[in-house]
């Protein structure tokens, strides 16, 4: 008991002074925390205000889209954990709980990074230009921080993609060199970079980077071990070959030029067809269009529906015949179709025969939904117009498929008709897909063209226009020249609506012929 000796109470008094000092320090820390929190709130508020003035335009920039998803999946949870300690968070928690379905998820985060990488590949964009926000079709754009670049690299690393890991970790280092307050630790970047270089077989560069890491953190045990390991491997290699391996002289350029398609899953992406697809998407004339001087534009009056307002037909290719009809759908129709389809949009899935599961298809990245004629006279009118335009019967036609492609959204090369060997071939009463009408319901600032790999045709989305072609030869066989794809959307959002006509009931309208 302290009351019996004043000496001890005196001690307590001194402790009280200490306590006050600690309390002061604690309050300072808390005030600093609250100041950070206030700044965050101000930033979020300002950001949301500027962005909401034109969200479609803002999100049309793939870097912005990535950064928004990152704010929800990385920055916000991190800030919450670091900065919010008090128990007065009921309101905040309730808000977040009520919004879980609209909060971007970890999947969205990885998806937005994969989309940026896809765009980088297809459109041959330099890493540095993406990080600087310099993307075709975009006027003002944010810069990516070293941490953003690091995150790109980290996700690629987790997917076993060394090629892109190296590109983005190198970019993270470059950005870091310019940053005043560092957004990521240099040693973390070096750690990933060196390991990716090693896995890719670029031992000398891996060694250089590991050395740089050790200069920063001499006591890094794993790095020390790695360095020894690399040195041994290099010594062994030099002994065996007496010379350095070609393409590995310790320079970064050689490292990233190594085969980027080691990954087996990416085999198709290394094929000539895929290369053609990507080149066409970039607008390169790799496949010459046949007889360009014979391609003309004309008005068509071939149905009473078009007597007063004729079709504006542009022939894009004669063999196979591909035409574009301008101003075929008006703004009111487009808005109504988007509005009706929006609540139904679901990610395209494919059936995996090995697992029996429905999976998201990598080759087709978009959301789609179907609209029936009976739902609205406007939808029925669209069908009638397609029938008048193509002179085909509607009895076997599919419903209207509405598709929205987001950042990096695409549909890799395919045919619209089904091959006999395919188990999901169409029902007997309907037959195969004889003709495609694809309506474009948005302009797309950059990317998003429909390209035909054999015909060399590139159709750029133009709001209200439609492309039309026959998928089947008069013999009923699939026309292999109709192979086509939807290029990844680089900037903007792409909406299309597909109408597929089928073989049956067209016997007198598009009769089969003896010749192919
Ligand atoms: O969206 C495009 O440009 C093409 C879509 C397509 O080919 C399809 O849905 O079958
Ligand atoms: Fe298609």
TrEMBL record:
Q: Which UniProt keywords apply?
A: Dioxygenase, Endoplasmic reticulum, Glycoprotein, Iron, Metal-binding, Oxidoreductase, Signal, Vitamin C
Gene Ontology cellular-component annotations = endoplasmic reticulum lumen
> What are the names of the required cofactors?
L-ascorbate
Please name the Pfam families in this protein's record: 2OG-FeII_Oxy_3 (PF13640), P4Ha_N (PF08336), TPR_P4H (PF23558)
Q: What is a GO molecular function of this protein? A: iron ion binding
Major subcellular site:
endoplasmic reticulum
All copies of domain Fe2OG dioxygenase, residue ranges = 396-503
Query: Could you list the residue ranges that cross the membrane?
Result: none
Q: EC number(s) for this protein?
A: 1.14.11.2
Q: Where in the cell is it found?
A: Endoplasmic reticulum lumen
What InterPro entries is this protein classified in?
Answer: Oxoglu/Fe-dep_dioxygenase_dom, P4H_N, P4HA-like, Pro_4_hyd_alph, Pro_4_hyd_alph_FE2OG_OXY, TPR-like_helical_dom_sf, TPR_P4H
Which superkingdom does the taxonomy of this entry point to?
Eukaryota
Q: Spell out the PROSITE patterns in the cross-references.
A: FE2OG_OXY
User: Which EC class does it fall in?
Assistant: oxidoreductase
Entry's family note: Belongs to the P4HA family.
The role this protein plays is: Catalyzes the post-translational formation of 4-hydroxyproline in -Xaa-Pro-Gly- sequences in collagens and other proteins.
- The protein's name: procollagen-proline 4-dioxygenase
Organism, per UniProt? Capitella teleta
